[in-house]
Structures are given as C-alpha cells and as structure tokens.
Amino acid sequence: MGKAGRLACVTAPMLLLAACFACQIFVFLGQMNRDVSLLNDLYFLKADTKEFNRDPLANIPDVPGTDADNRLIQALKDAAQANDMKDFYQIGLWNYCEGTRDDSGNEIVTYCSPRKASFWFDPIEVWDMKGVNESDVFNQEMKDGIAAYRKVVKFAFAAWIISIVLTVAECVVCMFAILSRWGSLATTIISGVKNLFLIAAAGSTTAVYAALAGVFHTVLDPLNIKSQLGARMFSVVWLAVAFGVASGLFWMVSSCCCSGKSSSGKRVSAEKAPYTYERVASPYMGAAPGSHTTGTVPSGNHAPVGHNAYEPYRQV
C-alpha cells in the first residue's frame, strides 16, 4: 500500500476530528452574540421569568417554608417592580443572555453579558436583588446547589479549554500521520488525552446543570419561574465526545495498519531473478570463448583441462 492508500486510511479519523472540533467551537460560541439566532439557541440552562413578571405583584402567593422564602419573594417583587427582571435568561459557557418575549411567543435577545472565564450564573447579581445577599434570601437547598455549581463550573471550564487546545494540537500532528504509522501513533496519544478532558468537561457540565435545574425547579417553581436544560447545546456537547472518541479509535487502527510503503520495491526483476547464473572468467580456466590472450603459457606437468571440469559461476 502506497502513499495514496495511507491517505485513504487516515481520511476517516481526520473527518471525525474536524466534526469534533466544529462541535467544540459551537459550545464555546453559545450565547456569544445576541444577533445570531443559531448561537442564541445554544445554552446550558434557561430560566423563564415571564410568568412571574406578568402576574400582579400583590397576588403572588406566599411560599410556605422558612423566612428565607419570604425574603426571596420580596426581593424578586422589588426587582420585578423596578423592571430589572427580563422574561428569560440563558446561560452559556462564557456568559449569559437575557431578553423579552412578545404576545406571540417570539423571543428577542436584548443583552448578552461580557465574556468571563469560569463564568457562573449568580441570580442575585443578574436579577439585581438590591440590598440582599445569598444567605438572606436562599434556603439551605438553594445555597448548597449554588455553592456546588460555582465549584464544578470552574473545573468544567478548565476542562473545556484544555480539550480544545489538545484538539488543535491533534489537528497539527495528524498531518504527519499521512506519512507514516509513527505519525498515527503520536496522534493517537494526543487524541486519547484530549478525549479524557473532553469526557470530563461534558460529564461535569451535564451533571452540574442538571443538578442546578433540579434546585431551580424545587425552589423557584412555586414562584412561576421555570427552568429547563438546553437540549441543543447538550446534543452538541455529546456529539463532540462521540466524534472525538471515534476519531481516536481510527487513529489507533491506522497506527497498526496502512504502513504507506510501496510493495513494488520488494519485487525482484526478471533479469535479477534468484538462481540465475552466468559464466565469469577465471585465471585458471582461461578466457571466455571468443577472447584473445597474449603471451605464452608456461609449460609444466599439468594435466589437460577436460570439458567436464568445474567452472565457477556468479549469482546475479
């Protein structure tokens, strides 16, 4: 198999790697531009506060429980009355976006926050609950959920950054995989490490936002604040994992097969076939037929040379 066969062998993992890279880019671009509807649909978690805003403030029912519940209601009432709360909030990897919904149900993103490393969604800050802090308005379940979310999201962000850096490195090194299996081996190693961080990023992100959605549902549903996970974003996340793992497996196969060396070099030409001999001249047997020698042959008591005598040959 020559270079063309080698190229065909590594085409599949290259295409899978490109698909993985594209999915990672979409994860990073989610909620980055309020004017691009495709990116606005990519979010990890969405909080819908439309029903809370629409209900008459005086008729919002009190939520049974601790005083923290009552303080939370009052803080939300104040924020809604000051028009500081929007109809929905969408959380991405770097930031969040907010917007309004018209009577027809059409959503319009009006603002996206600046990008920030290890971003986490702080309801008190985003909903502009002035004069309160977390311990005053959240019950213990909400405080524990926010604390866990804040810690895990930092690890998830770091894992996403490392995974995409390793993906870029894999894209560079895989060019050498076209030439030899050593290139495939190096690419396989990088791909394996990348996939570990990619799986860690996807798993931790899925777990933390699923847990946060559960906490929001328990604590905020009585206030008609709904939360939901972003199905499209998590589809892209796990497609990136699937493409990355598949490309790693193909790189592993290509490091064992498809050497890229041409088999024509191993063929023996007809004129150099084995076990073919030709006569060579010998100082003992005289010159080859048709040749002329000069000088005299010394005399001596030598036996005459017979026609059946041994004649050396050389192998070609």
How would you describe the overall organization of this protein?
- The chain is of the alpha+beta class.
- The protein has one domain (3-256).
- Helices cover 50% and strands 9% of the residues.
- The strands form 2 sheets. The protein has a 5-stranded antiparallel beta sheet with strand order 4-3-2-1-5, covered by helices on one side.
- A hairpin with a 4-residue loop joins strand 2 and strand 3 (96-101).
- Helix 1 packs antiparallel against helix 9, helix 7 packs antiparallel against helix 8 and helix 8 packs antiparallel against helix 9.
- Residues 264-273 have low confidence and may be disordered.
- The chain crosses the membrane at residues 157-183, 195-216, 236-257.
- Keywords: Membrane, Transmembrane, Transmembrane helix.
- InterPro entries: SUR7/Rim9-like_fungi, SUR7_domain.
Give the topology.
Elements lengths: L2 H27 L7 H4 L4 E4 L1 H5 L12 H15 L6 E4 L4 E6 L5 E6 L10 H4 L7 H4 L2 H34 L7 H40 L5 E4 L1 H26 L20 E3 L33 E3 L1
Antiparallel strand pairs: 1-2, 1-5, 2-3, 3-4, 6-7
Structural class: alpha+beta
Flag low-confidence runs: 264-273
Domains (count): 1
What string, H for helix and E for strand, traces the elements in order?
HHEHHEEEHHHHEHEE
Largest sheet, spatial ordering of strands: 4-3-2-1-5
Estimate the global geometry from the Cα principal axes.
Answer: elongated
Largest sheet: 5 strands, antiparallel
Give the % helix: 40-55%
Rg estimate, integer Å: 38 Å
Question: What portion of residues belong to β-strands?
Answer: 5-15%
Q: What is the overall pLDDT average?
A: 80
Figure out the total of helices: 9
Cα-to-Cα separation, first versus last residue: 28 Å
How many strands in all?
Answer: 7
